Amino acid sequence: MKNNAPRSLLERLEAHHQAGYLSLHMPGHKENTALAPYLAQLGAQWDITELPGFDDLHDPQDILAQAMDRAAKLWGSRKSWLQVNGSTGGLLAAIRAATRRGDQVLVARHCHKAIYHAIEVCGLEPIFLLPPVVEGLGIAGSLTPAQVAQALEDHPGVKLVVYPSPTYDGVVSDTAGICQAAHAKGVPVLVDEAHGAHFGFHPAFPPNAMAQGADLAVASLHKTLPSLTQTAVLHTSGKLVPLPQVARQTGIFQSSSPSYLLMASMDGCLGLLEDQGEALFAAWVRRLADFDGQIQDLRYLRCPGHGKEAGQTLPGVFAWDPAKILISTQGSALTGVELKDRLRADYRIEVEMALDHYVVAMTGLGTDDTMPTRLASALLALDRQYGPCQEDAPPPAQRHALPPRRCSVEEAAMAQGGLSFLYDAMGKVSGEYLWAYPPGIPLVTPGEEITVDLVETVEQLYQAGVRLIGTRGKPPITIFALGDQDG
To answer: Is residue 466 a contact partner of residue 442, using CB atoms and an 8 Å limit?
Structure first.
C-alpha cells in the first residue's frame, strides 16, 4: 500500500470496509452484517481473507511483518511471530523446531498439557523434573538451576529444556540461572511464558524470558494484556534453534486461514504498549500496591506475595508474579470453591479459578481503579464473616516418586486398552494422564507403570480432599490401562 496508508491493521480494515468492495472471496458472510445481527456485534465487517494490502501471516511482508518486528523490539527477541492458535500452537511449533523424533527433552512435570501433547506428537522421550511443593499451599514451586544442571549431567543426551514461568498460580522460576546451566551444555531453553506477557515492562514485574537468556519463549497476549482470546507471540533468540526452522513450524501449527480480527487485536495491543505502555503499567502497579495496603487486616484468608507478605517469598518459590492474587483459604472456614461462589454471588466478582483450598484472581493491564477496594472489601468482609477453620486443614499434596516408564508417550497414547479398576491395574501401563489439583502435577502419564506407590498416593490425595482428574478414567475408581478391554 502507499506510504500514507493507515498505520494500524484495524484502520486498514475499516477503510477497506468503507470503500464498498463487492466481496467475492472468503468468508461466507461477505461483510453482510444485515444477514444476522450477531455478525455486526462481533465485528464481522473487519473479518476478511488475505487481500492485497493486508499481508499474509504465513508470508509476512508488510503490516504483519511490521507488527512482528515491533513485538521483537518490545520483548527483546531476535524474531517474534504472531500466533492465532494461542500459546498452545506456539509451544507445539517451538518444541518441534528444537527437536527431532526420539530426542530426550528435560521437562518440568507441572508443564501445561500442550507440552505433553507436543511430546506425544513429536515422538520425544521426556526426562521429568519435579518442582518442590510449596509448604502450606500445596502448589508447585519453582524449578531451580541446580535441578536442571544435575539432570543435564545425568542425561547428556537431552536436546531441550522446557518449563513454565510464571505458572498458573503465579510462581516464577530463576530463568537466568536455568539458562546459564543449560547453555553450559549447549542445550536450548524454552520457557512457557503464557501467563507472563507483561513481564519486563515494569520493575515491579520480573524480567521476561528473552531478557534472561531463553532461546524460545511463548507468551499469551490475551491473558494479561488487552488482546483477544487466542492471541499469543512466539519469541526466539535465534542462537541455538535456527530461525528458519521456527518459521516453518509456526506455519504448520497455525491455521492457514488466520483471523484478521485476532491479528488486528494483536497489532492494536502492540501499538498501545508502544504509545502508552509506561503510563499504563505504572497505573497497574499502583492499583496492586493499593490492594496490598487495603488487605493488611486479613486474619484467616491469606494472599502470598500480597498484603502483609508483599515482596516476600516462601521456601520453594524463587519469586511471585504480582499480577496474580493467590488467595489461600487454608486458615479460613471457607474452602476455595466456597470463596469463589461467595465472591460471585455476593460481590459480583469473577475469579480465574478455584480449587479445594485456594483461589486465583488475575489482574491485567485492563484492571481499573475500582479493583483494589472492591476485592479487598469483599475479602475482609468474608474473612470476618466466616472466621477461622474449625478443623484441621487437609495436608498439602505429598511429593511421590515418578513411576517407571515402560513405553513412550506416543506409543502408549495410540495403544489399545480399556478402563480398569485402579487397584486391579497395578503393574499395568497407563494409557492416560492422571492429575492432582493442587499442585497440578501429573501423577502418571501415558507409558508409565501403575505402581503400588501411585495407587496409595491417589488414595491419600483423595482422602485429603485433593481434586483428581483423569483424561480417560474416573479417579480414584478407574484408570485407562493398556491391554485391557472396555466393558
So the answer is: no
